[in-house]
Each structure stands twice: as structure tokens, then as C-alpha cells.
Amino acid sequence: MGNIIKVVIIDDDQTIIEALTEMLELEGFQITSYFSAEKAILALDHHSTAVILSDVRMPKMDGLSLLARLRALDNELPVILMSGHGDIPMAIEAMKEGAYDFLEKPLQPAQLINQLQRAAEKRQLVLENRKLKQNIAQQTGLEALIIGESAAIKSIRQHISSLAQANIDTIIYGETGCGKDVVARALHQFSLRNKGRFIAINCGGISESLIESELFGHEAGSFTGANKRHIGKIEAANGGTLFLDEIETMPLPVQIKLLRVLQERTIERVGSTQPIPVELTVIAASKDNLAQLGEEGKFRKDLFYRLNVASLTIPPLRDRPEDILPLFHHYARKAAAHFSKPLPLITPRYLEYLIQHPWPGNVRELKNAADRFVLGISETSLASIKREDDINGSYEERMEQFERHIIEEGLRVTNGQLNEAAELLDMSRKTLYRKMKKHQLDKQQFKAFDDGQE
């Protein structure tokens, strides 16, 4: 998953650097170390695949000054500060200025490793998001329309290039919301008929009594209410492309007339016997297997064979997880521009949701999720997943997290003994109990921790 994120250790104490390097390398981290903040800054940039672990008390440039410089260099670079002289005011200042975390020496190995792993995951995601955005911005042609990295989508792009130049009638198969209309528009846009009109009609959205008039048009007085001549969709698409969505819902009598149009490339308006020649490409879309419907007598076999010069099948989104993040980025960027909102960073937890969600509504559901994500509208299925700006963007939110972290450490060190924890944290037992209740902490979980029953 992308480049390996290394840990950059900055400390003026060689003994500490050696000890940390040995411990973290045993845990699988790649380590680079510096004895001064000035040298470390020269080696870092906006694209660094790194997490910073720095001491606060250093000569010339201290950790807080380093933090400010790194935030100016890249405000998404995770910086974990550590200090043997740390106190609450210093920690608050560090968190307020954007530190990923503040750890007090002597460092607790499990806590340090956990925070470094989380910071590395965040950095990996940030860099991948940046690369993906850059790739999307550089996309042209079909890649900008048919978005995705899966083998299926790459194959569809290749087929579109071939079919579009041939101007042949095509059937597009796929579940509801998978993007059949997008593929149809791409077939038109890259065809030799792209100067003509792209006319779309949803066969399932028009009543049976009106669909014939909508497709073929009618002459004035041809039926009750026909007060003037009406040009139908097929005639309007002359010289271009006609897209028939949900063609499986088209009534059988209308299918017979459509077959004649495909065979003779002429139409007759309702109420007229005058043939009108048309030159167009017909693209049909269906969520059902038309061949199977033909065997069941629910769709005309001869119409199926006439349409089925070529066919494309779009797999559901759940079968092509490689496409989820590129598509989400695409729609999130469009939503941010449409709603004039900043584009939030996708957190690892939100990314996990995106990948694991089955997306029964396919790309259409994903687009709606991107809109809600940009607008900050929470969803039932995302109740426990917060956006990055919800987690780290608010001063109050981050202080709440830091307070909980301090109390957890106090309870862990004292094995859940409230009197000892209150004394260690320099607060009354009543205050400790109130804060534990606020953060929903139970002393029993910390008693089990030291017994190896975590």
C-alpha cells in the first residue's frame, strides 16, 4: 500500500536515539535519526513519507519551534512530541499548535508504538489521497469520464473506444445505480455522432399509453389531447444517439415498432403514414438479462438480437473495490465545488467504511455519500465514524481527547486504583470520578490490563 512510512527521530541525546531506534526497528519500523531539528528540516518536504518523533527540550530550535516549521512545510505531517519535563500547559500548547500527540518520558512502549502506527496510517492515507487527486486532475478523455482502476473498468474503457468509433447499437447491462447512463454518454461523446444530440428516455418512467408518442412523436389530432405536432425522441436523436434506459420495461407492442425502426431506420409519427428516415445509434440499458427475458416471453427475441450487436456489462461496485476511493474522490471534489465547501480529509476509519460497505445502490449511493461527507451530514451507518476535521480540527475536541488520554494513563499506571490515580494526576477523587464518568471509563478495565487480560 504505497511507500513505506519511516519514523524520523529527532533528539539531542544519542543514548535515547539508540534506544528508540533499537526498539522500533524490532517492531518493523524504518528509522532515520537526527541530533538537531535544523538538520531534520532540511531533509523533509511536502511529500515526505515520514512520521516525526521529536524531543521538546533541544538547543537552538526546540520541539515547539520545530512543530511550527513543519506545520508550515506540510500541515498534514504527523508530529509526535516527547519531553521528560512535560507538563499540562506545554502539552496543551503543543496540541493547540497541531501536534499529533504529546508523550511524556519515560515513554510507554505500547503507547508509543500504537501512536506511531496510527500516525503512519494517517500519513500513508494523506499521501495516497494527494496522489489520487493529482491523477484525477491529470485525467483526460475516457479516464475522466469512466473512473476507476479495476480490471473491469479498464476493459470497459477499451471497449468504449472501439464501439464508439464503430457507431453500432449496444446493450449495457448492470444493476441500478452502477453508471449505465455514464457509459452510454461516453459512447456518444467519443463517437463520430458526437456533434448530434444525445437523447435519453427512461422506458420505465413513462406510462404505456404515452411511450409510443414519446418515442415516435404524433401528428396534431391523432388522438384526444394531441393539439399540435409532437417530435418524438427517436426523431430528435436523428444524427446522434438514442439512449433507452430500462428497456426491459418497454411494452411488447412498442417493442415491435422499435424493431422496425432499427431494421429500416425510418419512423412514422402516430397518426401519420409518412416514413421519416433517421440515422442514429441506439444504446439500450437493462438491469435484467434480456436473453433470459426473451426465453420467458417477456422481451421480444428479435428485438434483442437486433440490439445485441455489442454489449457491455458493468459489475456492481461491491465487486470492484479498487474503484471505490477514486470514485469517492471524484464525487467529493464535485460536491465541494458545488457546495463551496472545503474538501475534508478521509480518515482511516472512514476509508475502512468505504471499502467494507456493500454499496447496494452502487455508484449512485456512493455519490450521495460523498455529498453528505462534504456537507458534514452524519449517517446512521456512520454514527461511529467521524470526519478528520471533526477529530482534529476543533481545539475543544482535541483537548477532550487529550484529557481522556491522561486519565487513561493514570488509571493504567495505578492498576485502576482511584485514590492512587487521583494523587498521581493531582486531582481530587471526586474530580477523577466525574471525569471518568464523562469519558465513560471503568476502573475494572484498567485492573485487567496489568494482568495480561486485555
TrEMBL record:
GO terms for biological process: phosphorelay signal transduction system; regulation of DNA-templated transcription. Signal peptide: none annotated. CDD domains: AAA, REC_DctD-like. InterPro entries: AAA+_ATPase, AAA_lid_NorR, CheY-like_superfamily, Homeodomain-like_sf, HTH_Fis, P-loop_NTPase, Sig_transdc_resp-reg_receiver, Sigma_54_int. SUPFAM superfamilies: CheY-like (SSF52172), Homeodomain-like (SSF46689), P-loop containing nucleoside triphosphate hydrolases (SSF52540). Residues 146-375 form the Sigma-54 factor interaction domain. It comes from the Bacteria. Residues 6-120 form the Response regulatory domain. The lineage of its organism: Bacteria, Pseudomonadati, Pseudomonadota, Gammaproteobacteria, Oceanospirillales. GO terms for molecular function: ATP binding; sequence-specific DNA binding. It comes from Marinomonas profundi. It holds the Pfam family AAA_lid_14. The keyword S-adenosyl-L-methionine does not apply. PANTHER family: C4-DICARBOXYLATE TRANSPORT TRANSCRIPTIONAL REGULATORY PROTEIN DCTD, TRANSCRIPTIONAL REGULATORY PROTEIN. The modification 4-aspartylphosphate is found at residue 55. This is Sigma-54-dependent Fis family transcriptional regulator. Keywords: ATP-binding, DNA-binding, Nucleotide-binding, Phosphoprotein, Transcription, Transcription regulation, Two-component regulatory system.
